[in-house]
Amino acid sequence: GALLLLSWLLVLLPSSVWFKNRMPGTIRIAGGTSGGEYSLVANTIADALEKSSGRSTELLISHGSSENLEHLGSGKVHMALLQADMVENEDVKDVAVVAPLYYEAVHVLTRTGELISELKDLKKRRVYIGHKKAGSRATAMRLLNYSGLSFSDLQIVEDLAAEPPVDAVILVTRVGASEIITLMSNGAYRLMEFSQAWEFALN
After folding, report:
1. Other C-beta atoms within 10 Å of 95: how many?
2. CA 20 to each of CA 29, 76, 95, 179, 189: distance values in angstroms, whole numbers, following the listed order
3. CA torsion, points 69, 63, 168, 186, in degrees to nearest 10?
4. pLDDT per residue over 186-196, tens digit each?
5. DSSP of 42-61
6. How far is Cα 202 from Cα 128, in angstroms, rounded to an integer?
7. What is the DSSP letter of 144?
8. Strand 56-60 to strand 26-30: parallel, antiparallel, or no bridges (unpaired)?
9. Residue range 69-123, pLDDT digits in tens
10. What is the pTM of this model?
């Protein structure tokens, strides 16, 4: 899927052209966890907006796409970063897509040495699938359902740093994201091959 930048319609004109006198004095943007990929992108967008509009910006730390969608819907923020899946699968009203930012991939990592070669091997395993408010969780559910599994078949672990280490991780992020590199850097985890990736993507 793609990472999208969405905006509350009240700060956009129907033609999608910004007018300074219709923009709020401070533009609030929902990004992601501190230091994470979404926060880095949100910071870049905020800098660009301040330079082009002369308005100040305020970044809101969040746990991901699901929480960002809630903040956008409630009017707590004017702009938010969301996974495309969240827009397609939710009843989204009064918001508009400003721009696609980059494509994201589903990463399934398994702990080195574990006998996990396909998704069905995750049954009864300890798996981290992202924060409850992250878009990764919704995508992980779709992936598991596609493979004949559900969350109830797994031991869901809420903290990636939990001990003992989790058996597998399912995350949706850009290829080459720092969190994926960190997990694989010391050889503790490896990417699992998924031969049906194209079929799942088109499902």
Report:
1. 19
2. 17, 20, 19, 37, 48
3. 130
4. 899 999 988 77
5. HHHHHHHHHHHH--EEEEE-
6. 25
7. H
8. parallel
9. 888 888 899 888 888 777 665 556 667 777 778 788 889 999 999 999 999 999 9
10. 0.72
